[in-house]
Amino acid sequence: MKFIYPAIFRQDTDGLYHGYFPDLDDCLSTGETLDDAIENANEAACNWLSVELEEGGHLPPVSDPSDLTLKEGEIIRNIAANIRLFEGYDE
Question: What is the pLDDT of residues 37-73, one digit of tens each?
């Protein structure tokens, strides 16, 4: 199943990129480049969503990117996380 959540990225003074998901508590990523941070965000979102689904949690609603307020220097990207649902998930 594919889930798409917005992530917000910014570059710090040391040049590293940091990302977070407004909808996924404590789901963060870092990378030396924006592409690295996006790739790491994808992995972080997959892990976060997998754990939530395994524990029977409810996934948070997805924010509309146009509703999010960005600070100066921040950019937003939609991150697609493909999760393979486990057998018996729907039972």
Answer: 999 999 999 999 999 988 887 889 999 999 999 999 9
This prediction has a pTM of: 0.87
- Beta strands (DSSP E) in the chain are 2-11, 17-20, 28-31, 75-82
Instruction: Judge whether 6 and 65 are in contact, CB under 8 Å.
Output: yes
Q: Considering the domain 2-82 in this protein, what is its CATH number?
A: 3.30.160.250
The answer to whether 44 and 36 are in contact (CB under 8 A) is: no
- CB–CB of 10/80 below 8 Å? no
Element (H, E) at 83: none
